[in-house]
Amino acid sequence: MNITKMAKANEIKRDWIVLDAEGKIFGRLVAEVATLLRGKHKPCYTPNIDCGDFVVIINAPKAKFSGVKLEDKEYFTHSGYFGSTKSKTLKEMLEKHPEKLYKLAVRGMLPKTKLGRTMIKKLKVYCDGNHPHSAQVSK
Predict the structure, then answer these.
(1) Which CATH superfamily is domain 14-125 in?
(2) pLDDT in tens, 39-65
(3) Is the pLDDT of residue 139 over 60?
(4) Which domain of life is it from (predicted)?
(5) Running DSSP on this structure, what letter comes out for residue 24?
(6) Does residue 7 register a pLDDT over 70?
(7) Measured between alpha carbons, how far is 35 from 53 in angstroms, rounded to an integer?
(8) How far is the C-alpha of 68 from the C-alpha of 130, rounded, in Å?
(9) Three-state SS for 130?
(10) Nearest-angstrom CA–CA distance, 76 and 106
(11) What is the pTM for the complete model shown?
(12) Where are the domains of the chain?
């Protein structure tokens, strides 16, 4: 009888994966990042254990968007006070805070639990081609 082996937290081996966003479609890249953070690409995937890898995204503002999303898509924030709703377009977010944009998109694809909050901490986003995690990345 074959029994499915469940992974344990101390048996998980995490890798460092570097993804270059230059010239890639934003949505497809973010979907791939969510899969890597969750660990669904590994044969030892267990839904209730964080078995994903660390992901480093470089050249974040150079991703491609289709259509007129850059001008039309808006992100809203609300502090909780009356009349405090603020909005920014995708273009403004990409220019000023690309790290926030990527984390917001990936967070929507992860579980909305403590497990999802620990997974999103393994995502590192950088605007240029340099990152301080070169020692961890295996070549």
Answers:
(1) Ribosomal protein L13 (3.90.1180.10)
(2) 999 988 999 999 999 999 999 999 999
(3) no
(4) Bacteria
(5) S
(6) yes
(7) 9
(8) 30
(9) coil
(10) 17
(11) 0.88
(12) 14-125
